[in-house]
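sry for the spam today, last one i promise. struct tokens for design, 161 residues
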């Protein structure tokens, strides 16, 4: 951001940015003037594409996307997610394992699809499994019974308590 001792004519309490306007008014005018200009649109698309090809741009996009997803889909802020993660000791609520390092993403937010209440954080595998069982406890119990009756070995790394 530019620092300037001049004051904007549109808002005397704000610093001058360009063409005697504050930054917000200048951008608003620029946006209105160039809203339908195909050359400007193309230039912006190309600049955005170049930026997103950099590691900084990609990281920024991931953070913005994650933040937006948490807010819109789960009605929670990043701070709420971090608090839940800390309360669960950075592990899945079901298998008590951290997200595998092959996945470069945090644990998934598990939520009730009817009430939209957030239940906890799950690893990719446990979250997918619940989804495949349609979040139905009866189906999960039947699957557990099926495995027990067919002498399938229990997996050692998934504690159930």
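last one done:
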């Amino acid at each position: 951001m530019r620092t300037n001792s001049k004051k904007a004519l549109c808002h005397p309490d704000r610093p001058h940015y360009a063409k005697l306007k504050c930054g917000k008014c200048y951008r608003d005018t620029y946006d209105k003037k160039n809203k339908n200009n195909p050359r400007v649109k193309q230039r912006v698309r190309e600049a955005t594409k170049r930026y997103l090809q950099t590691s900084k741009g990609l990281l920024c996009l991931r953070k913005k996307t994650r933040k937006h997803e948490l807010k819109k889909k789960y009605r929670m802020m990043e701070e709420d997610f971090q608090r839940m993660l800390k309360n669960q000791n950075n592990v899945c609520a079901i298998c008590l394992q951290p997200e595998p390092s092959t996945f470069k993403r945090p644990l998934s937010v598990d939520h009730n699809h009817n009430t939209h209440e957030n239940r906890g954080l799950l690893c990719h595998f446990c979250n997918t499994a619940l989804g495949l069982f349609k979040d139905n406890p009866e189906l999960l119990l039947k699957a557990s019974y099926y495995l027990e009756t067919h002498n399938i070995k229990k997996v050692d790394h998934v504690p159930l308590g």
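The first helix runs from residue 23 to 34. ok im logging off now
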